[in-house]
Specification:
Pathway: Porphyrin-containing compound metabolism; heme O biosynthesis; heme O from protoheme: step 1/1. Its EC number is 2.5.1.141. It catalyses: heme b + (2E,6E)-farnesyl diphosphate + H2O = Fe(II)-heme o + diphosphate. Keywords: Cell inner membrane, Cell membrane, Heme biosynthesis, Membrane, Transferase, Transmembrane, Transmembrane helix. By secondary structure, this protein is mostly helical. The protein is flat, with a radius of gyration of 20 Å. It has 2 domains: 1-169, Orthogonal Bundle (Tetracycline Repressor, domain 2), CATH 1.10.357; 171-298, Four Helix Bundle (Hemerythrin (Met), subunit A), CATH 1.20.120. Helix 7 (119-140) packs antiparallel against helix 10. Helices cover 81% and strands 0% of the residues. The relative contact order is 0.11.
């Protein structure tokens, strides 16, 4: 066996462990946490070292939560086209390896947050880990079609984690950001579940399009999108943000509602796929608008 072959296998194994952390989803969560760090700094910029330590710690614990999710859902993932190529679904990584990996990166994340950030952030992130890896993945997701609604709180926590990292506190403004992601999650995920309904039917998971049908889910995408549009106006209403954010939110919500209306009244799988993609862009731009507005007041 050549050195090049060994190196290639090592890189492949590393990429498989990396895939366990669902890096794209983790990146969005960490992005929202970082925005929370900047918004939680009332005067100037947050400490660069603090942002770095908090980002690393939150990333590690988030990755550990997703690794546990992959472990718990490995048989379900193997039945779904969308997830069949995940490392555990393919059997490329063993249960014991995944457990050790999750313990190592999760433990490292807790140490970083406790020692280099503050205990509050560590405990909040750990509770978020439990909420996603245990309560959502193992209890809610396989048992109720409202899993994404009830369990959405854990996925909505990153802004509060970031805020806690710099302020050692989680004020009302931070919880407003959590609320925005909490209300955003159902229409975002149900758009995916709609065009992947056959996949979810095979999985055995009680997703809303499978248990209650397409029309019911389409209506609830529209309903939650209206609620989301209203929720995103709260930062302006409580004078947390100004005109830059307000104008941005109105424009972004107009596009989001247009996608949701199409899902409700003119459904096709392509429309749902486009809505799902836009929902990710929407959240990123909305939080970016909050950041810009924080430093540029009109």
């Amino acid at each position: 066996m050549t050195t090049q072959t060994v190196s290639s296998k090592q890189q492949n194994r590393a990429s498989q462990f990396w895939a366990l952390t669902k890096p794209r989803v983790t990146m969005m969560a960490v992005f929202c946490a970082v925005i929370g760090m900047f918004l939680g700094t009332s005067d100037g910029l947050p400490s660069l070292s603090l942002v770095l330590y908090a980002t690393v710690g939150i990333w590690l614990l988030t990755g550990a939560a997703f690794a546990v999710n992959c472990l718990a859902e490995r048989e379900i993932d193997a039945r779904m086209a969308r997830t069949a190529r995940r490392p555990m679904a393919l059997g490329n990584i063993s249960v014991s390896q995944t457990v050790v990996f999750a313990l190592v990166i999760g433990g490292a994340g807790m140490w970083v947050l406790y020692s280099l950030v503050n205990p509050l952030t560590m405990w909040l992130t750990f509770v978020t880990f439990l909420g996603y890896a245990i309560i959502y993945t193992m209890i809610l997701k396989p048992s109720t079609p409202q899993n994404i609604v009830i369990g959405g709180l854990s996925g909505a926590m990153p802004p509060a984690l970031g805020w806690a990292a710099v302020a050692n506190d989680v004020p009302m403004e931070a919880w407003l950001l959590v609320l925005i992601i909490f209300v955003w999650t159902p229409p975002h995920f149900w758009a995916l579940a709609l065009y992947r309904r056959d996949d979810y039917a095979k999985s055995g998971l009680p997703m809303l399009p499978v248990t209650h049908g397409m029309k019911f889910t389409q209506f609830h995408v529209w309903l939650y999108s209206i609620a989301l549009a209203a929720t995103t106006l709260l930062p302006f209403a409580v004078q947390m943000s100004g005109l830059i954010y307000l104008v941005s939110a109105v424009i972004l919500n107009a596009v989001f509602l247009r996608h949701a209306w199409k899902i409700y009244r003119h459904y096709t799988d392509l429309i749902a796929r486009k809505a799902f993609t836009w929902s990710i862009v929407y959240l990123g731009l909305l939080f970016l608008a909050l950041l810009v507005d924080h430093y540029i007041k009109l």
